[in-house]
Amino acid sequence: MNITAGIPVERGKYLEELNPREYLLKLLKEGFSGYVCITIHGKMGLEEGILVMHENKIVATDYQYFFFNQEYKSQDALERALNAFLAPLGVVDVYSLSAYQVQLVMTLNEEHNLQVPVATESLTIPASFSYQFEDQLRDKSPEEGELTKEEMLKRLGITRYTGSKTTRAELQKMSKQDLWEESEEK
User: In whole angstroms, what is the distance from residue 104 CA to residue 116 CA?
Assistant: First the structure.
């Protein structure tokens, strides 16, 4: 999905800290204009969903499975993103956009737009998290020689350091240690 960076409103909020329904309803009722990005760790790696909001409605969605290089749009993405809010491990980032920026996002990503935008009264969050969407992709593997986003993140050393107890200082220390070990190997 082509989307502008926006102004950070909230970054790195752990899923375990929020009630998904109340959280989304609050944003919708406040007339939030921007997008919510949810990143979770599924069975096979990182997944990311984006919910674009405008005028008290969710108007466009995107969902990606990095390991499988698979992207879903519109209604299919909405179902997966709402399911992701109930995942055991994940974070939410919220970015505000101007009305003009949201319209631009919708124009550039027409295939992501919902035919029927989701308002507060039609917001349906599943009762519990399900791996069913990811399980449907299990038979599909990345093409031979193709570098998946998950592999790219692993090569950069990003996915190894996930966890709710890891601090920024610890990540920096581990990264420096990895660089030191790599330089000694050469």
Answer: 18
